[in-house]
Design brief:
The chain is an alpha/beta fold. The chain has ten helices and 13 strands. It has an eleven-stranded mixed β-sheet with strand order 12-11-10-9-8-7-4-3-2-1-13, with helices on one face. The protein is globular, with a radius of gyration of 21 Å. Bound molecules: iron/sulfur cluster.
Length: 385
């Protein structure tokens, strides 16, 4: 497959311009059309000569993914099912945060985009719907960047000085560190001067624990912040929940890499812990977790499990989640409960699997987003682990 146009850096575009016997500045103009103007079609790059636009659209007919479906949640979350140039389907999620009244209209002030790095996923976490798809393919850097630009357009956002505040999380479909080069190239495109110029501290990458890549990531600049999806406090349980754990050297190797990870002065590592009722949510689990992470500059995000069809787990009761959190805090570990977003449209953590849901809105429709979805009834689930 040809390189995606949004994958290419300013220097790449200069080289490509020269190879067409064009001046280097023409290459920089093309880059600006893609990353500053954020065109969806070459016709929108009106400042480029018509002949060049024709050539570019012959070589790269598709810049933006097609929105196949969008699902709007009662809480403002929107899940997008996107079709890529070769027909592969991925999902990206928009989450508005901190709403306030502006001129009588509710408006979100902070926004989080959850984007995919792969179509499907090879890791196979037992509690995750995406795992059931298996890995279809890696995304190109440009296909990752294109998700961000699409969500910016769909929600009319303009991040930057005095504008909307955007956080980006590589937590959609896929294991980002198993598509390392493309993910790092996408972070480069999104942070570099002349494009979106997103501050690297506004990006977080979540990994199931690819130890050698965690070490490699620590040496990168710019790099997203790191979140490690831990989910268990013993090797035995983690091997059952996250099958790749065994081949990574166990908790000892993973936590050694975490302890040795070079943090910026105000940076903390994040550990994510999906709470599965009766599986990993006991106070003994919490005490063990606090001991494992003792002394690290880290915080824990507790994620009560989000139900998915065909998955035999259950979410812990809210009081158990609070007790677990209190136990971690008592062990000196800051812990936060992540309240589910977009659960009713299968947009919450571990739910991205292209499932149909109520709340669908017209794929081509733009704002304002229509009335919210009706909730999907909870599935009767049992823990069979
Ligand atoms: S939780 Fe993440 S790493 Fe695990 S299977 Fe799902 S998408 Fe892959």
């Amino acid at each position: 497959m040809a390189e995606h146009p949004l994958s290419l850096s300013p220097a790449d575009w200069e080289v490509r311009a020269r190879s067409r016997r064009l001046p280097a500045w023409r290459g920089r103009q093309i880059y600006a059309a893609l990353h500053a103007q954020r065109i969806e079609t070459w016709e929108q790059a009106a400042h480029l000569p018509a002949g060049l636009r024709r050539e570019l659209s012959g070589e790269w007919p598709v810049i933006a993914p097609e929105v196949e479906h969008a699902y709007a949640s009662t809480d403002g979350t929107v899940r997008y099912l996107l079709r890529l140039a070769d027909g592969a389907e991925i999902e990206a999620v928009y989450l508005p945060l901190e709403e306030f009244e502006a001129g009588g209209r509710r408006r979100a002030r902070r926004h989080t985009f959850c984007i995919s790095s792969q179509a499907g996923c090879a890791v196979g976490c037992r509690f995750c719907l995406t795992a059931q798809l298996g890995l279809e393919r890696n995304l190109a850097a440009g296909e990752i960047v294109a998700q961000v630009y699409l969500l910016l357009r769909r929600h009319g956002l303009h991040p930057g000085a005095g504008g909307d505040r955007l956080n980006l999380v590589y937590m959609g479909m896929g294991e980002p560190l198993l598509n390392y080069a493309a993910v790092m190239a996408s972070a480069g495109r999104l942070t570099e001067a002349g494009g979106l110029e997103l501050p690297p501290r506004r990006m977080t990458l979540s990994t199931a624990g690819i130890v050698d890549k965690i070490r490699q990531l620590g040496g990168e600049s710019p790099r997203p912040r790191l979140a490690i999806s831990l989910h268990a406090s013993t090797d035995e349980l983690r091997e059952r929940l996250v099958p790749l754990h065994r081949g990574q050297g166990g908790l000892e190797a993973l936590l050694r890499a975490a302890r040795e990870y070079p943090l910026a002065p105000r940076e903390r590592l994040t550990f994510e812990y999906v709470l599965l009722g009766g599986v990993n949510d006991s106070l003994q689990d919490a005490r063990r977790l606090a001991r494992l992470l003792a002394g690290m500059r880290a915080k824990v995000n507790l994620i009560p499990w989000n139900a998915g069809p065909g998955l035999a787990f259950e979410a812990p009761p809210p009081e158990r989640v609070r007790e677990f959190q209190a136990q971690l805090n008592a062990g000196g570990l800051p812990a936060w409960i992540r309240h589910p977003r977009g659960q009713d449209i299968y947009a919450a953590c571990g739910q991205l699997a292209r499932a149909a849901a109520p709340g669908g809105i017209a794929a081509s429709g733009d704002r304002p987003l229509p009335a919210a979805a009706t909730a999907i009834p909870a599935q009767p689930l049992r823990d069979t682990l």
